[in-house]
Amino acid sequence: MKTINVGLIGCGFMGRTHSNAHRKVNNFFDLEHRPVLKAICDNNGEKAKAFAAQWGYESVETDWQRLLARKDIDLVDICLPNNLHLEVAVAAAKAGKTILCEKPLARDGKEGEQMVRAVEKAGVPNLVSYNYRRIPAVALAKKLIDEGRLGRIFHYRAKFLQDWTISKDLPQGGDALWRLDVKVAGSGVTGDLLAHCLDTAVWLNGGVAEVSAMTETFVKERKHQLTGKVEKVGIDDACAFLARFKNGSLATFESTRYARGHKALYTFEINGEHASIFWDLHDSHRLQYFEHRDPGYLRGWRSVHVTDGDHPYMGNWWVPGLTIGYEHSFVHQLADFFEGIAKGQPAGPTFRDALETQYVCDAVLKSAKSGQWEKVKAAK
Ligand SMILES: NC(=O)c1ccc[n+]([C@@H]2O[C@H](COP(=O)([O-])OP(=O)(O)OC[C@H]3O[C@@H](n4cnc5c(N)ncnc54)[C@H](O)[C@@H]3O)[C@@H](O)[C@H]2O)c1
């Protein structure tokens, strides 16, 4: 078995999900590669040391440039706030490292383009962590669509709802709250949450041609944690948009951090000529499926419990009927990434694939400003 020495940067929320995946992937998937937790890097040295002890990293760095200069690091795992993705990924590509980068690819399409150029010039394997693709029920939806069971697709409907920024006293910027600082995040719910919805949508239903969007920033000023000053809020707190896919289907997308009572309600529904699909992150191991070609007396929505051995990924886990959860999507992502490297057939979304999502986000934000329908830039 070939070892891949991992240098993971950013030991926050995603640092934990990725470290967990590196530790578990070979226990459940037969792969040619085995990740070794060589180095953890965070500019908060104390946090990095404690993280190394908890997760079993062999060494600690506090400067990502030093990490990239190390010859003993093969894979750079970028779990940093969005404003750092470009600089770190471009440098990692120049250093010849394999790159796993958290989503969104970048703050906007222009940054994303530089990242795509860098990894393609260097010829290094690359993947963006849109992990919801790898929830078995979502992967089953892909299989059903690819088998043609839905027929022509008419509608795509997605939403991602949260409620954690309603308080006007919540500051912006700095640790944990960088998502509210537009300079760091790039945008609000569009780049953060709708990017997830869009990655799934483009994967399942193909490219988006044009969009018409509205955004709102409900709390216009917040104290900035780093400067201590009250500053204008530049992110979109909520966004809703209409979209027309290249295959002619119509779509609605909605995301907000102001939907009281919802913590992470990601749902999508797809309506086709013969069948429909509905999925809900809060019930993530179920796929709702309606098949119009069933005999009339049997027609109805079925709730498929996606836990059987012949469901995507599930044969690698327990026995039929037993569920897995959120963290497993990151294990699947890593297994697919390594399998793609072994076979020379890159797993998606590559940086180039993720640029497509970035372009839709750009068009959404542009449309919200212009009040017009905006065309989505072609990614390929
Ligand atoms: N795939 C998903 O579902 C998902 C979920 C959450 C976050 N994300 C993405 O993951 C990325 C990280 O988000 P998070 O929630 O883990 O953030 P976080 O704030 O929890 O962690 C970020 C870490 O980066 C460290 N850091 C900041 N600047 C640094 C620097 N210059 N050098 C080294 N370390 C530095 C911080 O100290 C912190 O430990 C973001 O791009 C975010 O959009 C993806």
Descriptive overview:
The structure is a single chain. This protein is 33% helix and 26% strand. The chain is an alpha/beta fold and 380 residues long. A nine-stranded mixed beta sheet has the order 16-15-14-13-7-12-11-8-17. Bound molecules: nicotinamide-adenine-dinucleotide. Nicotinamide-adenine-dinucleotide binds at residues 9-15, 41-44, 47, 64, 79-82, 84, 102-103, 129, 131, 176, 192.
Summarize this structure as a short list of keywords or feature phrases.
binds nicotinamide-adenine-dinucleotide, globular, alpha/beta, Dihydrodipicolinate Reductase, domain 2, 2 domains, 10 helices, 6-stranded parallel sheet, Rossmann fold, 9-stranded mixed sheet, 380 residues, 33% helix
Q: Strand tally, please?
A: 17
The overall pLDDT, averaged over residues, is 98
Strand order of the largest sheet: 16-15-14-13-7-12-11-8-17
Helix-strand topology string: EHEHEHEHEHEHEHHEEEEEEEEEHHE
Stretches where pLDDT is under 50 for at least 5 consecutive residues are none
Helical amount: 25-40%
Q: What characterizes the major β-sheet?
A: 9 strands, mixed
Q: Spell out the CATH superfamily of the largest domain.
A: Dihydrodipicolinate Reductase, domain 2
In one word, what is the shape? globular
What would you say the CATH architecture of the largest domain is? 2-Layer Sandwich
CATH topology of the largest domain: Dihydrodipicolinate Reductase, domain 2
Count of the domains: 2
The fraction of residues in strands falls at: 25-35%
CATH class annotation of the largest domain: Alpha Beta
Q: Which ions and ligands are bound to the chains?
A: nicotinamide-adenine-dinucleotide
Helical stretch tally = 10
The radius of gyration over CA amounts to 21 Å
